[in-house]
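Box 3.1 A note on notation
Throughout this textbook, protein chains are presented in two layers. The first layer is the amino acid sequence; the second is a token string describing backbone geometry. Keep the layers aligned when reading.
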Amino acid sequence: MLAGGIAAMSLSAFSAQAADDPIVMKLSHPYPTVTQHHKNVSKFKEEVEKRTEGRLVIDVFPAQQLMPITQEFNGMLSGQIDAAYSLNTIAATLDPLWGVLELPFLFDITASDQTHLREFVQSEKGGGALKASMKEKGITVVAIAPTDYVGATINTKRPIKAMSDFEGLKIRIPGGKYLSQSLKELGASPISMAYAEFSTAIAQGTVDGTITGVLFTYDNKIPINYLSQVPLWYAGLPLVVSNRFFDKLPEDIQQIVLEVGAEIEIMGFDVTEQTVSSTLEKIATEMDVQVEPPLTPEVAAAMREKTLPVLDAFISDNPAGQALIDEANRLRDQ
């Protein structure tokens, strides 16, 4: 009994000491504080700090305060930062398997129903395989949490109703080898650039538009004339922590970080499914943008057929990627 009491007192003292001198996680992300991206991070910070009773404090640096999104993975591996809320296209620069989330028409999702993508992310052979692969690269994925429905092709020139409407458009992309290939197959010219450069580029006519999210378009009041729903890639956004930092955390704090991450993943899908449809209406009425309905099945099928070489290229580059595509197909057909 005495030994048990001493142990309990020691544990209590350790907890109090840790709260007085907490572990600090430095987390970077590239987006403004008005975005769902930042709201997800803020919720993660709030819940982790509450459940660890202040033993782990998360310092959030939004809007590229510390570094551009393209440097975040190197920043984690080198110890400049501990964590990031990134993009799947950026994750693919470290782990090419993440390119599966930028394969055109792979997932059957709509503005109000992302069930197919949700099931893939939460399956052992889908999101589980992506997380395991990234762990081997030195990064722990605590969530794959969307912030938006990124089936939005927005531009200043014309609506996208048929494949020919892509012809000649200069479309900004946030990186991504396979997203770039998809646009080329459809007749557009992809231009990779950070969002910080995009506002100036579209105002000057350097680009005609971008592929982005519905909520992001509204939150940032992007000056465009047309929004078309074309699912060329998917917002599988990884919330990640370096193994160097994560593996040194006490086991109970590791568990809390993973538990909160799983909740943020669910929240990401719930928020987007509940808000995107109403936001499309706001974009039309408040921003005076012509919002197109989803592509007809015939047009979608033609675009899917045209972009099949992109899936072949992904498998050629990443033989292990076939299993990911098979899992996506299995979940769609079940």
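The chain is about 50% helix and 15% strand. The two ends are 56 Å apart (CA to CA).
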